[in-house]
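Please describe what follows:
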Amino acid sequence: MKVVLDITRLLRRSSQSTPTGIDRVELAYARHLLGSRHYQDDAAFVARLRASTWYLDAETVAGFVDALASRWKQSEGKITRRELVAVESFLDLTPGVLTTLDAAPARSSLPDMMPPLKRLLSPVNLLPRLLRRRSSKGAVYLNVSHEGLNSINGVRSMVRGHGLKPIYLVHDLIPLTHPEYVRPGDAEKHETRMRTVLGSAEAIIANSHHTLDQLKSFAERNDMSVPASIVSPLGIEDEFGMDAPVEAPAHPFFLTVGTIEPRKNHLVLLHAWRALVEKLGPKAPKLIIVGRRGWENENVIDIIERCEKLGNHVLECNRLPDVHLRRLMKQSQAVLFPSFAEGYGLPLFEAMALRVPVICSDLQAFRDIAGTAPRYLDPIDGLGWARAIEEYARPDSSSRAEQLQALQHIRMPRWSDHFSIVDRLIEAVAAPAPAPLPAPSWRPATSAERTRALISAGERLEGARPSFGFAAAQPHSSTR
């Protein structure tokens, strides 16, 4: 069972100091294929560079992936001691409680990506293309990053010329459903990507039922059919587990995590905080905004930098290593996600994995995984957000206590859960004559683990005992 993973994005992004969410997904797939006994010597890798498809030596890919994972992991610790001291001071924490967690690595100690890149792309490691084409005939081709899907003809030529069976992971359709939140031209590019997916896929992986529903709607509008599809939620890193308890801070605070850009809707929080400060004065809770500055955020930055009323109650923290983020999440009253649109929403699920309350926009992408546990609000209901934050800030908050209780009985999906579904899909597609899959119609509420070789999104398992539960308690009616 030959599987070929496209790692074009990892090569293109290897010079960056920090990964995006999609970078993390492609990296997780590469590490799974390299480390799983399920594939052994059957994992292969390709990259599409300069309009050509290059087959890459798996052993050298492993060295490249290890170096890249190490670099990205160490790079997240580049926050300075001064920045951590500022967070401690802002929250009135015991001096050193954050600065002593983990020492940031010296810049010179970060892995240099040039040596593994040179080895990976060396002519010695690029086997003859005709030989690789023959050995990959009938292999499953995995593209999990939307990379290179802007060229319908290019993908079709590669698939047909190399005899591949494509499986695509679809992350979201935000550029098509909310074009106002992406850069000019991105909507047209994404439409081409989705047409490529629908026109060439043997099967599709969606990260949520919401994403799959949107893809089906796009296909219907464009008179296209949807190939066999499954839903497999993305995984949370194991480090977002039940860490040791932390002491409550002297002053209640909240976190929001996400790039500062219009789609994330930081404005509703800032206006809510202004109202809280005007009402409660020094007793108003505090807010830490964790995320890099994105695009078209001038109005948000102006309020953060120039609003004197918020000066002692709002702190912008552009970078925060996971070890510090986990600690602050567990100390916070709740983590806030007022987004207008999301493809998945991994930071929300990371917070829930830590048993931290969340207040979030009422989006189906959130409900698909989080179920009824969070406090849901309309993203434009500023007064509603102010009331909920004030309520959760109280030490005797019954709503917060109820959510904490609900969080004790859920488990967020891990990467092992994601791949247990994906591996079965790959097996079915790789089979000489895979059985047709039923159209999806049922929405699972309690199981992300399957007990058959392949269960399509929509096929219910009667009498099957789920091996782990999502947060949702009911079937749903309808993604740093």
Remarks:
- DSSP finds 18 helices and 13 strands in the chain.
- Residues 3-57+126-231 form a domain with the Rossmann fold fold (CATH 3.40.50).
- The two ends are 34 Å apart (CA to CA).
- Residues 287 and 314 are 5 Å apart (CA to CA).
